[in-house]
Structures are given as structure tokens and as C-alpha cells.
Write a structure and sequence with these properties.
This protein has 167 residues and is an alpha+beta fold. Helix content is 27%, strand content 28%. The protein has six helices and ten strands; from the N terminus they run ααβαβββαβαβββαββ. The chain has helices at residues 7-10, 15-23, 41-49, 81-87, 98-105, 150-157, and strands spanning 28-31, 57-64, 67-74, 78-79, 93-95, 123-126, 135-141, 144-148, 160-162, 165-166. The strands form three sheets. The chain has a five-stranded mixed β-sheet with strand order 5-2-3-6-9. Strands 1-8-7 form a three-stranded antiparallel β-sheet. A two-stranded antiparallel sheet has the order 4-10. Strand 7 (135-141) and strand 8 form a beta hairpin. The longest helix is centred in the N-terminal third of the chain and has 9 residues, at 15-23. The chain is globular.
């Protein structure tokens, strides 16, 4: 006998889309066929959706002074670890161990969303997001993006907005 899927799985939902729906936030889902051989999850998403890479944001998990912190930056650039640490009042930041990031957020690498995480982590959104009416972020799995306003993302994640990205 087959296992009955959970309600949000039946609807194709992820914890991220469930959080958006529960909060009543308008969003658009973009699905595409993920290519495991593509060298960059974020660039693959931008190409597949036909969206400029400066509007597609990647979710990175860093360790700031011993505490995990989420950084959301454009896929077209890189995370400035020093700026991230400063944005949350820390001194040092380094990328978190991928396995720890996956365990803590409940998502797999390449599909980590800043929304609907297993454990709510402090979040910093790159200031460049405010230049766009909408941005795209992972919806919680590879090949699935969600488009929403930067203001909605900031509100839902209680993010600090700071210049943490660099070209």
C-alpha cells in the first residue's frame, strides 16, 4: 500500500510555499527541470526562467561568531562575509558546513529557502534587492523558485537589509 502524501506535498507545496500561503503573501512559482550537471544552481535558475541574474537571489548559510545566519544575495555576485558579520553585529563569518546547513534548515543544498526553515535563523537580505519590484528565491527544492517582493521577504524572515553582496 502506498504512503499517503502529506497535504502540502499533494498540492506541490514546500515549507516555503506553505509559509507564504499561510501569511497571505502574493507570490508566483517558477518550476524548471533541474540539470544536476550545471555548475551553479542560481545561474541555472536564472537561465531557465529567463530572468536577469541580478533578480535571482541565492540563500547561503554562514557561521557568524558561532551562530548560523542566512544570507540572501544575487546569484550574479558573491557574499561578502565581513559585511555579513557586520550586518548582524558579529566579528567573523565563514561559510557553514553544508551538512549542518541542510540539517538546520531542513532543505538540501541548492534548494535552501530563507522561508519555512526547520529552525528560524537570523537573515540578512542584500540591499540590492530593494532595486527590484520582485526577486526570485528558492522555493525549497532544486528546480523550484518563488517570485515575491523584497518587502514581503524582509517582513516574513524579519531580515536585516544590508549591502552584503559584491560583484
Amino acid at each position: 500500500m502506498a504512503k499517503k502524501p502529506k497535504k502540502n506535498q499533494q498540492q506541490g507545496g514546500t515549507p516555503a510555499t506553505v509559509a507564504l500561503t499561510s501569511a497571505g503573501v502574493p507570490y508566483t512559482i517558477h518550476a524548471y527541470d533541474h540539470d544536476p550537471s550545471h555548475p551553479s544552481y542560481g545561474e541555472e535558475a536564472a537561465e531557465a526562467m529567463g530572468v536577469s541574474p541580478d533578480r535571482v537571489f541565492k540563500t547561503l548559510v554562514a557561521d557568524v561568531d558561532g551562530s548560523l545566519t542566512v544570507a540572501v544575495v544575487p546569484v550574479a555576485g558573491q557574499l561578502d562575509l565581513k559585511a555579513l558579520a557586520s550586518a548582524v553585529g558579529g566579528k567573523r563569518a565563514a561559510m557553514a558546513d553544508p551538512a549542518l546547513a541542510e540539517r538546520t534548515t531542513g532543505y538540501v543544498r541548492g534548494g535552501i529557502s530563507p522561508l519555512g526553515q526547520r529552525k528560524k535563523l537570523p537573515t540578512v537580505l542584500d540591499a540590492s534587492a530593494s532595486a527590484h519590484l520582485t526577486i526570485c528565491i528558492s522555493a525549497g527544492r532544486r528546480g523550484l523558485e518563488v517570485e515575491l517582493s523584497p518587502e514581503s521577504l524582509t517582513k516574513l524572515t524579519q531580515a536585516v537589509v544590508a549591502p552584503i553582496g559584491r560583484a
